[in-house]
Design goal:
GO molecular function, one term: oxidoreductase activity
Oligomer: single chain
Keywords: Oxidoreductase
CATH class: Alpha Beta
Strand content: 15-25%
Protein name: 3-oxoacyl-ACP reductase
Number of domains: 1
CATH topology: Rossmann fold
Largest sheet: 7 strands, parallel
Structural class: alpha/beta
Number of helices: 6
Strand order of the largest sheet: 3-2-1-4-5-6-9
Radius of gyration: 17 Å
Number of strands: 9
Family: Belongs to the short-chain dehydrogenases/reductases (SDR) family.
Order of helices and strands: EHEEHEHEHEEHEHE
Length: 235
């Protein structure tokens, strides 16, 4: 267990988050998994914390669970996010607040607590899932609130990487294209595949592999790693 890390994963009940949890567990790491609705686990290396990541008290419970059960926090995967694609003038105030609540408040509260613990250890890694739409706007997928929030997280990633570099804490992001996950109905896959220069959607394993790479890449910090089938390079 000397090489086993303690990893927090948000948005962990399905899709990329659930796949990330399983990947870290398969490598012998210990995981604290969070989602609004997530079942309790009897796995010795897995603790689950149900709750809204946008709520500061949820973040508090996640961090406390990691420290009390496993003794430290080595990696935080900020995966939780809300994505709503619609014309800018049609967003409602409720949608705006919900997206900001998860994408920004959720990032702020748990990252602040995780970095505080990492500072005490003198090491740690934060990786955040953003979106290639920040760099590659597409009129077929109008999504300004994703760009507003996830673009801010890309900028925060670089800022935190510099702020905490000498503290031994790395901060990176994975910027996906459109991934074949429960978010997208199968009948939409052909159209969504065509939005990528490589002609296919990404697999959840593509994003998990990127997270695992960044977690092991000790000389990489402040990186926005595009895993997007060429979208960020343009058409």
């Amino acid at each position: 267990m000397s090489t086993s890390k303690v990893v927090i994963v948000t948005g962990a009940s399905q899709g990329i988050g659930a796949a990330t949890v399983q990947a870290f567990l398969a490598r012998g790491h210990r995981v604290v998994a969070n989602a609004r609705s997530i079942a309790a686990s009897d796995h010795p290396n897995l603790a689950t914390v149900a709750g809204d990541i946008g709520d500061a008290q949820t973040a508090k419970r996640i961090a406390e669970t990691a420290l009390e059960r496993f003794g430290r926090i080595d990696t935080l995967v900020n995966n939780a996010g809300i994505f709503i694609a619609k014309p800018f003038t049609q967003y409602t105030s409720d949608e705006y607040e919900a997206i900001n609540g998860v994408n920004l408040d959720g990032f702020f509260h748990i990252t602040q607590r995780a970095i505080a613990a990492m500072e005490q250890q003198g090491s740690g890694h934060v990786v955040t899932i953003t979106t290639s739409l920040v760099d590659h706007a597409n009129s077929n997928v109008p999504s300004v609130l994703a760009s507003l929030t996830k673009g801010g997280l890309n900028a925060a990633t670089k800022s935190l990487a510099i702020e905490y570099a000498k503290a031994g804490i790395r901060v990176n992001a994975v910027s996906p294209g459109i991934i074949k996950s429960p978010m997208h109905a199968p009948q939409t896959h052909e159209t969504l595949a065509s939005l990528h220069p490589v002609g296919r959607m990404g697999e959840m394993s593509d994003i998990v592999d990127a997270i695992l790479y960044l977690d092991a890449a000790s000389f990489v910090t402040g990186e926005i790693l595009h895993v997007d089938g060429g979208q960020s390079a343009g058409h």
